[in-house]
Amino acid sequence: MRLPPFHLHRPRSISEAVALAAEHGDSAQFIAGGTDLLQHLKNRIYTPDHVISLQRLPGLRDITPTRIGALATLSDIADHASIGARLPALVECINVIASPIIRTTATLGGNLLVDTRCYFVNQSFEWRLSKGACLKSEGDDCLVVPNPDTCYATFSADTPALLMCWDASVHLAGPDGERDVPVHEFYRPDGIVRHVKQPGEIITWIDIPESAQQLHSGYAKLRIRDAFDYPELGVAAALSLDGDGSVKTLKLAFCAVETTPMRLDSQVAPLIGQPLTDEIIASFCAGLPKQLQPYRNTALPPGYRQQMTAVFAKRLLMRLRDEATNSVHSRVTV
What we know:
It is a single chain. By secondary structure, the protein is of the alpha+beta class. The protein folds into three domains: 1-58, 2-Layer Sandwich (Uridine Diphospho-n-acetylenolpyruvylglucosamine Reductase, domain 2); 60-210, Uridine Diphospho-n-acetylenolpyruvylglucosamine Reductase, domain 3 (2-Layer Sandwich), CATH 3.30.465; 213-333, Enolase-like, domain 1. 31% of the residues lie in helices and 18% in strands. The chain contains twelve helices and eleven strands. The protein has helices at residues 14-24, 37-42, 74-79, 81-86, 88-94, 100-103, 108-112, 125-131, 159-165, 265-268, 278-286, 302-333; strands at 7-9, 28-31, 50-53, 67-69, 169-174, 177-182, 202-207, 216-222, 233-241, 247-255, 262-263. The strands form three sheets. Strands 4-7-5-6 form a four-stranded antiparallel β-sheet. Strand 9 (233-241) and strand 10 form a beta hairpin. Helix 11 (278-286) runs antiparallel to helix 12 (302-333). The mean pLDDT is 95.
């Protein structure tokens, strides 16, 4: 499929990019790596008159364990020695995103902004017309949960769940200045209005607290194929234990089960101060399917995805518990 015609702009500064977005308004789209946006342009889901490339913006590719530029590619982040040494869970997460070729182009900022997906909309223009278009494309109603107000397309990015567990924040620059938004407050429960970023704003970098380096963290992903596919379910967790083996810190977040990634703070609160025995983990995870509601708009049935939240969370929490326990024992021995 061919791309629709558009004017390509290549600004050399953030202020120039923001000014171009303000000038062209709703007829403009930003593009970074383009691995997600170009699919949508080819399918005519979006048809902007102006596309503003961010590739020439300076200073947005730096990579450190506490700040990663939004234009840093996923492969560069995963290959960076300091990330592998201090944030190995981020490497684990990145290495199950898409394919190696795509990761050489896709950016971290772009992954935060990956569009929601649904099999009623992520099709060719001709397919949508034959089926009957939905609220997210040319229609007037959501075809997943019929209504004219809310789109139930599924959140389909991987890194936000892990960044939520670390209390990371997104730095934005726009026509009204700069601001920081915690990742767990960045998303909105609507498949069309997906986040709080305004149309003229740019993600410039992601800040990760230094405390993330002290946590035992991980990410697990359910997908059809072990290469390329978007998540059907993603679960991230970050854990630390006290010297007696009880839970000191625990964050748990899911993606690809609803229209937004979700961090389950209130649900994990009762586990703080408890030992993470196999029985406690199994009991806690058994209740997770009731907290999450997948919809029938991806390849796998929603009931199966819902039950897998318990399976994947249990496996991940037991792995991180064992890692944290071994770390505590090592410190005591020394």
